[in-house]
Design a protein that fits this description.
By secondary structure, the protein is mainly α. Helices cover 46% and strands 8% of the residues. It has a 3-stranded parallel beta sheet with strand order 1-2-3, with helices on both faces. Helix 1 crosses helix 2. The longest helix has 19 residues. The chain is globular and about 55 Å long. The relative contact order is 0.15. One of its GO terms (molecular function) is platelet-activating factor acetyltransferase activity. InterPro entries: SGNH_hydro, SGNH_hydro_sf. Keywords: Cytoplasm, Hydrolase, Lipid degradation, Lipid metabolism.
Length: 133
């Protein structure tokens, strides 16, 4: 299992360019490691309050939701739920500078990521038969 979590620092690029770059990385992984299962983590919201970079990251995630299912062995894990409060703010308890995660912020991401990794690592009956052959 390969986890890809990139793109938020490409804030000078358009959402389409960022999503295209992430897709290119996944395609390269598929070429170099065709047996690998790839997890792409969605971009997190950023900034204490709503802002253009937060909107761009949301657009990147939207584009990835549409494009990644067309690629083999890849799943998008959207981990931004719960970071933005009903008033549109992000808590410094989750992101101390409204970009980088705190321990609590990482915990919100690591639990679903760990569950997905464990699910992907379980061999299907077909995979077990192929490994024994």
């Amino acid at each position: 299992v390969i986890v890809v979590w990139v793109g938020t620092n490409n804030h000078k690029n358009t959402a389409e360019e960022v999503a295209g770059g992430i897709e290119a990385i996944v395609r390269l992984i598929n070429t170099q490691q065709p047996q690998a299962k790839v997890i792409v983590l969605g971009l997190l919201p950023r900034g204490e309050k709503p802002n253009p970079l937060r909107q761009k990251n949301a657009k990147v995630n939207h584009l990835l939701k549409a494009s990644l299912p067309k690629l083999p062995n890849v799943q998008l894990l959207d981990v931004d739920a719960g970071f933005v409060h009903s008033d549109g703010t992000i808590s410094y308890h989750d992101m101390f500078d409204f970009l980088h995660l705190t321990g609590g912020g990482y915990a919100k991401i690591c639990k679903p990521l760990h569950e997905l990794i464990m699910q992907l690592l379980e061999e299907t009956p077909e995979e077990k038969r192929a490994a024994l052959a």
